[in-house]
Amino acid sequence: MATTSNMFLYSLTIQPPTTISQALLGQFSGTKEQQIITASGSRLTLLQPDPRQGKVNTILSQDVFGIIRAIASFRLAGSHKDYIILATDSGRIAIIEYLPKTNRFNRIHLETFGKSGVRRVVPGQYLAADPKGRACLIASLEKNKLVYVLNRNAQAELTISSPLEAHKPGVLVLSLVALDVGYANPVFAALELDYTEADQDPTGQAGQEPEAQLVYYELDLGLNHVVRKWSDAVDPTSSLLFQVPGGSDGPSGVLVCGEENITYRHSNQEAFRVPIPRRRGPTEDPQRKRTIVSGVMHKLKGSAGAFFFLLQTEDGDLFKVTLDMVEDDNGNPTGEVKRLKIKYFDTIPIATSLCILKSGFLFVASEFGNHSLYQFEKLGDDDEELEFSSEEFPTDSRAAYNPVYFQPRPLENLTLVESIDSMNPQIDCKVANLTGEDAPQIYSVCGNGARSSFRMLKHGLEVSEIVASELPGTPAAVWTTKLTKYDEYDAYIVLSFTNATLVLSIGETVEEVSDSGFLTTVPTLAVQQLGEEGLIQVHPKGIRHIVQGRVNEWPAPQHRSIVAAATNENQVVIALSSGEIVYFEMDADGSLAEYDEKKEMSGTVTSLSLGRVPEGLRRSSFLAVGCDDCTVRILSLDPESTLEMKSIQALTAAPASLSIMSMEDSFGGTTLYLHIGLHSGVYLRTVLDEVTGELTDTRQKFLGPKPTKLFQVSVQGRPCVLALNSRPWLGYTDPITKGFVMTPLSYVDLEYGWNFSSEQCLEGMVGIHANFLRIFTIEKLGDNMIQKSIPLTYTPKRLVKHPEQPYFYTIEADNNTLPPELRAQLLAQSNTNGDAAILPPEEFGYPKARNRWASCISIVDPVSDEPSVLNRVDLDNNEAAVSAAVVSFASQDGESFLIVGTGKDMILSPRQFSEGYIHVYRFHDDGRDLEFIHKTKIEEPPMALIPFQGRLLAGIGKTLRIYDLGLKQLLRKAQAEIAPQLIVSLQTQGNRIVVGDVQQGITYAVYKPEGNKLLAWADDTINRWTTCTAMVDYESVAGGDKFGNVWILRAPERASQESDEPGSEIQLVHAKSYLHGAPNRTALMAHFYTQDLPTSITKTNLVVGGQDVLLWSGIQGTVGVLIPFVSREDVDFFQSLESHMRAEDPPLAGRDHLIYRGYYVPVKGVIDGDLCERFALLANDKKQMIAGELDRSVREIERKISDIRTRSAF
Amino acid sequence: MGCADKLRTQQELERLQAKYIGTGHPDTTSWEWKTNINRDTYSSIVGHPPLLSYIALASNEPVTKVRAEMIRKMIQPAGPPPAREEDTIMGGQQS
Predict the structure, then answer these.
(1) Closest CA–CA distance from residue B9 to any residue of chain A (Å)
(2) Of A360, A547, A959, A1209, whose CB has the highest number of CB atoms within 10 Å?
(3) A100, A36 in Cβ contact below 8 A?
(4) Do A19 and B53 touch (CB under 8 A)?
(5) Pairwise CB contact (< 8 Å): B53 & A118
(6) Lowest mean pLDDT among A635-639, A745-749, A982-986, B86-90
(7) Which residue of A has its CA nearest to B54?
(8) Given a cut of 90, is residue A724 above it in pLDDT?
(9) How many Å apart are CA A1151 and CA B35, to the nearest integer?
(10) Residue A833: what pLDDT?
């Protein structure tokens, strides 16, 4: 049976996709505030732009477990809230609203109209909503269009009609928009291509010159049907439509954008046409025509008819397009169009969506690379830019005209405010620990063209340091304190040294305070603001209570000293060296009263914790006592049962630090927790029952080799726990998922930490690092991956690491790009004519040239103080790098060389090239420089290279070949035709070679040294369009394919053994081929659809002491892991949890989860952790129900879910 | 099978063929099949954003342009249809 695989994996996303396929602006909360909804892969995300700070914050992100193909928003007349329509691969239309109160998406309607999946004739590709919110049209690529009427019922609830059909066979849709017609019958405009004629014409004439039609579909609200109202031929190269405001705002109609033209069209207006200006410049091809790739229409507030378009070409140039209308005698626009005008606006990265905010910002969802937020400086109204009008150009697309030109220039109308990190497209990824920290980092190459980057991804929270000041000595501890209960900010910083205490005042300058009343000749154990205006200093010899300058001293009993203390606003507890515990409570008159009885503990007390006084109460009712006999005891502080033991918990090591604090939980309330830091470095979190004092539900995490110290701090108003070990960690409740997370801080290791609040820094922390006092803040919780980025030159293709040194080598190549030598040549020619400066390619891109390649090798140093590209080797002769490897050649005494495979004059589709080469580079200066040795001409560009037993193994087309390094070139040693089509990936262990084919999956081959032969002995049962592979063990290989699947294949055991037997060569050579393939077939162990396209997969470990996981990176920027299950019990548990989650939390867009994860091949051996983690977001009754079915408590389930994540991943 | 049944089956098939484009019939020619499969492939590429990005990235063209290009390729993905006379001469042998 399919479900009883003997390998089970738990799939988790550790970084969701960062691509944005569409972004929409709207008032989704029902308030005036504008928000942005984005569709990225399978995730729907709500963003809140913050105009004051110029930032974009994520409010909510939800995986809908379906491919989001299109989104649209609409607002019912008279309403203030925008609804969202989702067109996905579910074969259903879903209408969603955002509930700001609970911060959730809520599905209002879900209507089924067709089969699920991305199909040619099932609607979902295009979606358009009437601007007045009365109807929407959902269309397929071919033939089918469905119109839904949206309305409201008597209860003011949104209703949706049954669909009205507007199908036409043989018609392809290129673009679809809703027309703005005011309150007349809703009309939708589609740009269509008809292929019926081409299908009938054997001469091929009709197919060569297809005619594009602009078609209007009108929904007759009275008759309740849709008619094809009007159609007209437009420029055959047209590909995009934009809505032109109508009703009282403008003339209505559409802009049709084609190759080098923008045409205004409407059924009752004449056509107006402007060309798209071409770039002028020495390196620009003056003949190249541009097309519009994205754009936005914006209506200016207040005046009717005031609107403009910002349309973007493939170069990233934004053009401002405006319409002039004929004016009547009073100077009011009549609704008749007079002319269309276009002028250059600014140049920004190519966008998928542009959103103009009312607050004067432009949100750019980039197609590739970082998204950005720009601010409008002006609207390009009165500048010197040349404007072109439709009056000078013919409306007929075939008529001749003179092309127009403009000069691109740096930003004038926009300024960049924020760049939002995006790893889309992520092309290759490696995991390595180069910084010497506990956990490894993820290194990946992303981006395209001149906006490419090398990124270092680290698990951690970003910390911003405010002050780092040197101290006279090395303090052991630090506190901050207010002077009275009513103070807003802290007044003192108290530092404890081995035999002294230093009190500093917080203000404009930090100065020593001499009249604080603190005893400065002793070390301090605790500092607390007590009661209304009292201060407490606990030191080894006693307690000092300072009230308004008067000092009361409580001396410790003779021959004993205080070893530990815990304080809060009303209570003080100390532990004596004899093991006694003394408890004090503040009286009504503000003095400290000692409780008569002392409690003696069995061992030495190592730590104490009281917890804060809950609001409205007089005291915290529990005391936690940690002793060196490896226990934690909970004592009661209630007046009736003071210092009575409530519960006890045994630990694996002595506790070093304790902290009782109440934190937000996933139930929507707060829970009291006892946090325990052990001497062994383990951190534990236990639920402390507020009534009985029982300790339940312990979770643990290993933080580092040192004793863990804990401190209660506050970040964004939430109580958090600061845990200090070999590096600082912060434990907090995730703002969105409400789950508890422990994340390292990207900061120096601290010895001690405390809260810090001052006028300049409301919510900070103070810490000690050696003899430095550091004050810092954490600004953003939730985003727990830190990115560092280094710019690269061209689109990266592969990433390889130096075998010993911390350097990476990237190969980069851009198609259809002018290489640097030709650029320089053209510039030299033009300079004689005295032309303008070169524009930076990061913003303006590289000049294009058909079938030309620009390619280079970069040496990246990611870990130095200033991470940068150390050196670059440009490739010439129209060669482009396609593969790379570092190989140590046995014939050169194991010296490592960088091997780069290239192709000359490559054309991608259909695959063409003139030659292939393998370049060999020698490392110099410990890998900081490269020296070109030689290149070997081969018949095809080699798509895969790896080191193999001190030699080079190359996949050249279908051929697998072993090379050794010669003086003049590489020397062929062995070869065989192994793959059916094209080798794209290679893996090896011992004599075994796993070959990935571009189309036909995996082939296992073996190298037989006796006969110097390469022989295939097992291959795949189905086609897999392999993109990446990694060997999991000697028999198994994990890989990803172009359709978004991740899978694991295993070779049959017997065949595997036989292939390695000495002398099995003859058998293998003469083995009977099975069904036109190798003699054996691999077995499928696991299969999972990820939605994103995996570009790399590696077996690695991500946390200290964690098990090995499979980490894959996706082109849309996803980073995911597959964690192997160790016990069958866990598998059963998660399997049933997953099936309950499928039933209780069905995907938002109506896609069946099981079918989605088994998009191409039924899901096998993989449990979807992303779905299981949604358990924390369920309503409490549903949680209880599932827990009941699984025969476990809700806490237990939540612990299991968080454990499996924290054990092996972030 | 009665004559009425045959007719009903025939009608059912025709209905399916009209509803689901690409549904085959006993006389499906090689060209029809190829054209249909190619159109399915192109529409699938257009419908899966990661796949479209993959192609756009390799060819160094904007996604929007690649999408339009793919849709245009759907018009005649496997060349023009074979001439009618040829059909009768070659019969089904071509496929």
Answers:
(1) 22
(2) A1209
(3) no
(4) yes
(5) no
(6) B86-90
(7) A1115
(8) yes
(9) 30
(10) 56
CA angle A834, A854, A421 (to 5 degrees): 100
Whole-model pTM: value is: 0.91
Looking at the predicted structure, is the pLDDT value of residue A669 above 60?
A: yes
DSSP string over A910-933? TTB-SEEEEEEEEEEGGGTEEEEE
| CA separation for the pair A677, A654 (Å, rounded) | 9
CA torsion sign, A699 to A704 to A708 to A710? negative
- Return the percent helix, strand and coil in chain A, to nearest 5: 10, 50, 40
Q: Which residue has the tokens 């050579």?
A: A1069
Asked if residues A764 and A756 have their Cβ atoms less than 8 Å apart, the reply is: yes
- The CA angle A171-A176-A181, to the nearest 5 degrees, is 125
Residues 25-54 of B with CB under 8 A from A: 35, 39-40, 43-44, 46-51, 53-54
B44 Cβ contact list (under 8 Å, min separation 6): A118, A120, B51
Give which of A79, A111, A83, A93 is closest to A24, Cα–Cα. A83
| Closest partner CB to B43 (pick from A120, A174, A352) | A120
Q: Which of B39, B44, B62 sits opposite A350 (nearest CB)?
A: B62
The answer to whether the beta carbons of residues A450 and A842 sit under 8 Å apart is yes
**CA–CA gap between residue A149 and residue A168 (Å, rounded):** 20
Each residue's pLDDT tens digit, B10-59: 888 888 888 888 888 888 899 999 999 999 999 999 999 999 999 999 99
User: Which DSSP state fits A360?
Assistant: S
Q: Are B53 and A203 within 8 A, CB to CB?
A: no
Q: Do A41 and B50 touch (CB under 8 A)?
A: yes
Q: Please report, for residues A612, A619, A1193, B95, the alpha-carbon distance to residue A531 in angstroms, rounded to integers and kept in the order given.
A: 13, 12, 41, 94
Q: Which residues of chain B have a CB within 8 Å of the CB of A198?
A: 75-76, 80
Q: Is A1191 exposed, middle or buried (0-12, 13-18, 19+ CB in 10 A)?
A: exposed
Residue A1066 CB neighbour total at 10 angstroms: 10
Question: Can you point out the beta strands (E) in A831-867?
Answer: 848-861
Whether the CB-CB separation of A579 and A564 falls below 8 Å is answered with: no
pLDDT at B86: 52
Residue A540: left if φ>0, alpha if ψ -120 to 50, beta else—which one? Answer: alpha
Which residues of chain A have a CB within 8 Å of the CB of B57? 368, 425, 427, 448, 795, 1115
Report chain A residues whose CB lies below 8 A from the CB of B70: none
Q: What percent of chain A has pLDDT over 70?
A: 99
Question: Do residues A431 and A443 lie in contact, with contact meaning Cβ atoms separated by under 8 Å?
Answer: yes
The interface predicted TM-score (ipTM) is 0.90
**Residues on chain A touching B78 (C-beta within 8 angstroms):** none
Give tens-digit pLDDT for A340-365.
999 999 999 999 999 999 999 999 99
What is the DSSP-derived secondary structure letter of residue A357? -
> For residue range A287-304, what is the model confidence (pLDDT) as tens digits?
999 999 999 999 988 776
For residue A432, pLDDT beyond 80 = yes
Does the beta carbon of B75 lie under 8 angstroms from any beta carbon of chain A?
Answer: yes
Helix, strand and coil content of chain B, in percent to the nearest 5, comes to 65, 0, 35
Q: A138-149 pLDDT, tens per residue?
A: 999 999 999 999
Strand order, beta sheet including A622-627: A605-609, A622-627, A631-636, A645-650
CA pair distance A1007, A705, nearest whole angstrom: 45
Distance CA A979, CA A962 (A): 15
pLDDT given for residue A4 in this prediction: 57
